[in-house]
Write a structure and sequence with these properties.
With about 140 residues, the protein is of the alpha+beta class. It has 5 helices and 4 strands; from the N terminus they run H-E-E-H-E-H-H-E-H. Strand 1 and strand 2 form a beta hairpin.
Length: about 140
């Protein structure tokens, strides 16, 4: 992959893929908490996703971000931090026949969001990648 890109195919948009990430009765949903970031993830067969993407990701700014401008800013910072740290996970799942669906949730204060996300999201992605390489 050239540069730091975030293709449209990586955007998690379908309700039928998002809803199971928040369903407490599902046993196949994993969690990683690092600082102000929580990642909820689930491995889904690519046939169920309908797109040949190795992963699909959504970003949720949380209820503490009160304004629309704040929510958009937090989402943009999360997307940017992900773009710069995505390659380990992308390379891992490009080789597999499955798709990683995940939601990145922000649980911090809007005032310190930028620095907190840039500190915690790369660590959370590293832990997630480690979880899959240890399991393999």
């Amino acid at each position: 992959m050239a540069g730091h890109n975030f293709p449209r195919a990586f955007r998690l948009k379908r309700r039928r893929l998002i809803r199971p990430l928040f369903d407490r009765s599902k046993g196949d949903v994993g969690f990683i908490n690092v600082g102000v970031v929580q990642i909820r993830y689930r491995i889904v067969p690519r046939t169920e996703v309908g797109i040949a993407a190795p992963l699909q990701i959504g970003f949720a700014p949380g209820s503490r971000t009160r304004t629309k401008v704040g929510r958009n800013r937090v989402r943009r910072v999360m997307r940017e931090a992900f773009r710069h740290n995505q390659y380990g996970l992308v390379n891992l799942f490009e080789k597999q026949g499955d798709c990683l669906t995940m939601m990145v949730l922000f649980r911090g204060k809007e005032a310190t969001a930028g620095d907190d996300i840039r500190r915690d999201l790369p660590e959370a992605l590293t832990q997630l990648e480690q979880r899959f390489t240890d399991a393999a």
